[in-house]
Write a structure and sequence with these properties.
There is one protein chain. The protein has helices at 21-35, 45-50, 101-115, 130-139, 177-183, 231-237, 239-258; strands spanning 8-10, 13-17, 57-62, 68-79, 82-92, 120-125, 143-148, 167-173, 202-204, 210-212, 222-227, 261-269, 274-281. It is an alpha+beta fold. It has two domains: 8-183, 3-Layer(aba) Sandwich (Aminopeptidase); 191-284, no CATH class. It has an eight-stranded mixed beta sheet with strand order 1-2-3-4-5-6-8-7, with helices on both faces. A three-stranded antiparallel beta sheet has the order 11-13-12. Helix 6 (231-237) packs across helix 7 (239-258).
Length: 287
Amino acid sequence: MTPPPSGRRTDDVTIRPLSSPEELAQGVAIQRLTWGNEFTEVVPATILQICQKVGGVAAGAFDANGRMLGFVFGLTGVHHGRLAHWSHMLAVEPDARGLGLGKRLKLYQRDVLLQSGVVEVRWTFDPLVARNANLNFNGLGAQAAEYVKDMYKESSSILHRGVSMDRFVVEWRLESDRVKKALGNQPAFKSDRYAQAPVVNTQQQGTNTVKPVELPLPLERVIRVEIPFDIDAMKANSMALAAEWRANTRRVFLWYQEHRYTIDGFYIDRSTQRCYYCLTQEHESHT
């Protein structure tokens, strides 16, 4: 197997495979920092080490002093008869967020996998987390493959308490035109096409308040599904409201998935801080 890239350096941050005992230990520590000390699904240092011998990726973004600022981990296997990679974890330390390290770690992962002949990567993310939707769809050019209700059933992480763990499974086709456009800072889709598309799951209440509601779901050619701008802040303020958003969007995504709609893209209206998934009937998809 071809050795992985030695590192992707930007400013004083270097991304490289975890190799020394100290680096592997930091890979464990950042998991606990991100998902909490009670998180029981921590990947141990031994697995972070040996996965790299069979096509897996365990890498960190390190500052000039060797401190880990970000971490990515995934396993390579076979899906439908060809090599594929499951990207299981991506984490960035709180004080290093906003520097683009999440995307840079994914680009490093892409470099490694392409050298190994892998062209398809999958992972999951919470459909209610707008910043992750923005990274996955707009920053990386990934596509939603499936909405899964209660994918992980339960978790010991403090991040997952109070709201059921529905997830999107996304597919990242590493050499697709969509990915190449996203990585070249070209829009993966045109959000203005959806400017007049109906929003099927919310109603305006007052000047700055949007409430999730159960509406009849139209079979329009294009529709929008709204999510909160910051679900984590909402959880801190009202777990009941966050759970209401989960139930609302679960109903909508599963219904449109059953009726063969695809997610064409995602955008954030910065003027209103409202966030929308854009869905299209499958035969009309512009992905």
